[in-house]
Write a structure and sequence with these properties.
binds adenosine monophosphate; binds zinc ion; 17 helices; elongated
């Protein structure tokens, strides 16, 4: 079996072959930390978490270097600081922590490296100097601009014709630009804006430059895989490619480019500018993280994903069915090898719909088995699900609606806050009490009362199941 990925640059699926299997390098553009992440952003990070997991499984966890940056200097952050009156650092710290908490709750592993833009300013200045030295950048009006004419392959990733981009006004026209398509590497900061001393005066870097420099600094000149949402292909990734190639004598920035499709509300892309966002943080107050993760991975990552409440409800129902079987085996954190059917689907350009189908098939066949074979089949199903980042909750807790992940792996997430229990309605103690009352009523043959208790519990989202060892309950 080979791992294949659709490479946006090649416009086809390619077998993934890392430059050095002992150090596989993967970079995903991370969040700009001035606000909560919405569920569309979360889709990108969960897709890349799945890719990271597949790389770890193939090359070994210690051989994969996954970097996901934090953009902590940006005009949107400056604007948020002005509007709220909070210092920039307070805003970026707060939203970085909240982002970590959301990611952990969604079952995303912590990246190996999480570089910050503000931690790389000196190196950004150095890259700009290199670009000026090579004639690929120029100064104008206290700005430094990248001259896109100096990079012959500009536009190759997105396939957008340069003239079209300009006609479409997707690039800012400014008097200090020689060519409207040229983009900012450095810009001046006003007295009330954050800035760093540079050969071009006090200022701050352009967003595109940040990623090029963090990649060079943390991973190297040419990385194996670069990921981001479809909207980042142009201009962000196009500009990253041009800067890095020109600074590095033509060495390509990445060997494979992976882009996820949009999460949509109806027919629109979910985006802050359209105001149709659902925050991951808000959803996590109502739904277990694994349910949201399941919904996010339900469509193939390159296809659009339409977000609906029904999708969440269906995802919950499906997970419940798996957790019912998982109750039969010892919950453990160990990961035995996942069955080939699921691995093969995931290694085929992260084909999650097929992987879910294979997972359902494993469940169906396990549920028809008996004895030792059944236990073994459930264990295999568990390891397949865990490879995808599921089944990290103790099944007894899942049944009761308590969804704290028990996985030690996720616990290692930097700065993550512990996910709170999701216990809507009745407390566990109260349910146990009512169950006891019902048992007494049944023993006294007061079936009207016992039925009443069962019905009352059902209206509050708790189902009772009578078994040979007495009644058990689960949240529905
Ligand atoms: P941002 O913080 O806006 O730079 O976005 C972080 C990541 O989320 C980037 O990789 C974006 O391309 C991605 N993204 C933004 N909106 C969506 C969406 N509606 N669906 C899928 N990915 C998105
Ligand atoms: Zn980037």
């Amino acid at each position: 079996m080979a791992l294949t990925l659709y490479d946006t640059m090649a416009r086809e699926k390619r077998v993934f072959v890392p430059a050095d299997p002992a150090r596989v390098t993967f970079y995903a553009c991370g969040p700009t930390v001035y606000n909560f992440s919405h569920i569309g952003n979360a889709r990108a990070f969960i897709v890349f978490d799945l890719l990271y997991r597949m790389l770890r499984q193939r090359y070994g966890a210690e051989h994969v270097v996954y970097a996901r940056n934090i953009t902590d200097i940006d005009d949107k952050i400056i604007k948020a600081a002005r509007e709220t009156g909070e210092p920039i650092m307070a805003i970026t710290d707060k939203y970085t922590k909240l982002f970590h908490g959301d990611m952990k709750a969604l079952g995303a592993l912590a990246p190996v490296i999480e570089p910050t833009a503000t931690g790389h300013i000196a190196k950004m200045i150095a890259m700009i100097e290199t670009l000026i030295g090579k004639g690929a950048a120029y100064e104008g009006d206290d700005h430094v601009l990248f001259a896109v004419d100096k990079y012959a392959d500009y536009g190759k990733l997105s396939g957008t014709q340069r003239d079209e981009m300009i006609a479409g006004a997707r690039v800012e026209v400014a008097p200090y630009k020689k060519n409207p398509a040229d983009f900012v590497l450095w810009k001046p900061s006003g007295d009330d804006e954050p800035g760093w001393a540079s050969p071009w005066g006090r200022g701050r870097p352009g967003w595109h430059l940040e990623c090029s420099v963090m990649i060079e600094s943390e991973l190297g000149r040419t990385i194996d895989i670069h990921g981001g949402g479809q909207d980042l292909r142009f201009p962000h990734h196009e500009n990253e490619i041009a800067q890095s190639a020109c600074a590095h004598d033509g060495a390509p920035l990445a060997r494979y480019w992976v882009h996820n499709g949009f999460l949509r509300m109806g027919t629109d892309k979910m985006s802050k500018s359209l105001g149709n966002v659902v925050l991951a943080h808000d959803l996590l107050a109502d739904w277990p993280g694994e349910v949201i993760r399941w919904a996010l991975l339900s469509a193939h990552y390159r296809q659009p994903l339409e977000w609906t409440d029904d999708l969440l409800r269906q995802s919950k129902r499906q997970l419940d069915r798996f957790y019912r079987l998982l109750e039969e085996v010892e919950f453990s954190d160990s990961n035995e090898a996942a069955p080939d059917s699921v691995v093969a689907a995931l290694e085929d350009d992260l084909n999650t719909p097929e992987a879910f189908a294979a997972l359902h098939a494993l469940r169906d066949s396990a549920s028809q088995m008996k004895g030792e074979a059944r236990t073994e089949a459930i264990r295999q199903m568990a390891s397949a699900g865990r490879l995808m980042g599921f089944f990290n909750v103790d099944p007894d807790n899942w049944r009761k609606g308590i969804t704290i992940e028990a996985s030690a792996e996720l616990g290692a997430h930097a700065g993550a806050s512990v996910k709170s229990e999701i216990v809507p309605g009745l407390t566990e103690a109260r349910i146990e009490e009512l169950l006891e009352e019902r048992a007494k009523a049944r023993a006294a043959k007061d079936f009207a009362k016992s039925d009443q208790i069962r019905d009352d519990l059902a209206t509050q989202g708790v189902a009772i199941e009578d078994g040979p060892d007495g009644a058990t309950w689960r949240r529905i």
